[in-house]
Amino acid sequence: MKLIKSFKMALNMVLHSKLRSWLTILGIVIGVASVIAILSIGDGMEAEVSSQFDSSGADIITLTPGYTKATDFGPGRHDEPQTSSADADADELTRRDYLAVKSVSDVEAVNTLVSDKVDVYYQGEEGTLSVTGVDESVYAQFETNDLLEGRYLSSADYNVVVIGETLANEFFDRELGINQLLTIEGKSFRVVGILDGGRSSIYMPLDAAYTIFDDKEKDVYDSMQIKIRDEDRLNETEAKLNLKLMNSRHVSDDDLDFTLTTNAASADLRAEMLSTITTFLTAIAGVSLVVGAVGVANTMFTSVLEKTKEIGIMKAIGARNSDILAIFIFNSALIGLVGGIIGAIIGIGLSLLLGLAGMPALVSYSNVFMILGLSVFIGMISGVIPAVGASKLSPVDALRAD
């Protein structure tokens, strides 16, 4: 019997058992759609992390006081304090650290930062917001958000601020625009720039920030952002900075009291975390594919029982075992194919809807075709045992079957 004839007979079996076939296909559809949607969300989240890494700067190293050690896995960065000085001042970042960092030849610029939450007033309204004091002379080199209006801070600035888009347009009842005044801890600051971003943060010159923070000491910093000259030499520069700071702070590897963090390391940890979560969720969704495979096998066993007498007739008129085997394998493969196609369409549609709803979802058509092929393969595998059983039926026994 030619394969095309076996295929037509398999197609007729599917078409003449519509309800049972569609119920079986439904299991494959749910499994395929779930796997594609979850993979799309995982790919979208990884792409978003990668995008954030690109925008945050691959050439930036962050220096913070106190030593923390990043684990290689976990929800984001696991910072485990390894040492805690009895003297809190010993961990502070000071002007001496700034000068040590600046002396490294691979360093292009250093942005010193202090931050805290303070009370902010605007036209009779009050709110508590995060304010960050930055080195205004280099701030523009480190800011990753574009300007919506106005300008960045510059060297001659003092009582001025740059604010986020959310603060400008949504935080207060009235919009806050360029050249309007904010009262922060009793002092007036003029808005000179609005960032194109959804943040409510406020950035001001470092010296001005010291005047509104009660617990900040001049020339003591909460952190430093270090911009290096060549991002391809990130690891070498980090090693140089580490050695320089160890010498400057008179500490060794055993009693480090500072932490250098690269954006690349943070991005890698986040990407690894997202990949693990995606794999876990995909495995859960894959369970529904396994259930669908069991459904296909069950349907095929039922088909063999129903077609026993017809199998006997076909064998009596010359059909070979391979012909019977091909019919049932085609039958199960068709169920997998139809279920895979419908599931892929639903999975892609679901991913697009999630994207429109604001959830990061990126459809990878290589994943779609891989899952589609997998559904056909699962359908064929599920039908192998019933098909082999059908092909080995004795014509006499099959004809005697009720």
Compose a concise summary of this entry:
This protein is an alpha+beta fold and 402 residues long. The chain is built from 12 helices and 14 strands. The strands form 3 sheets. Strands 5-6-11-8-10-9 form a 6-stranded mixed barrel. Strands 2-3 form a two-stranded antiparallel sheet. A two-stranded antiparallel ribbon has the order 4-12.
Structural class: alpha+beta
Mean pLDDT: 82
Percentage of β-strand residues:
15-25%
The main pleated sheet reads as: 6 strands, mixed, barrel
Query: Gap between N and C termini, in Å?
Result: 26 Å
Low-pLDDT stretches are 72-88
Radius of gyration (CA) equals: 33 Å
Give the helix tally.
Answer: 12
Arrangement of strands in the largest sheet: 5-6-11-8-10-9
The percentage helix is 40-55%
Global geometry: elongated
Q: Could you state the order of secondary-structure elements as H and E?
A: HHEEEEHEEHEEHEEEHEEHEHHHHH
Count all strands and give the number.
14
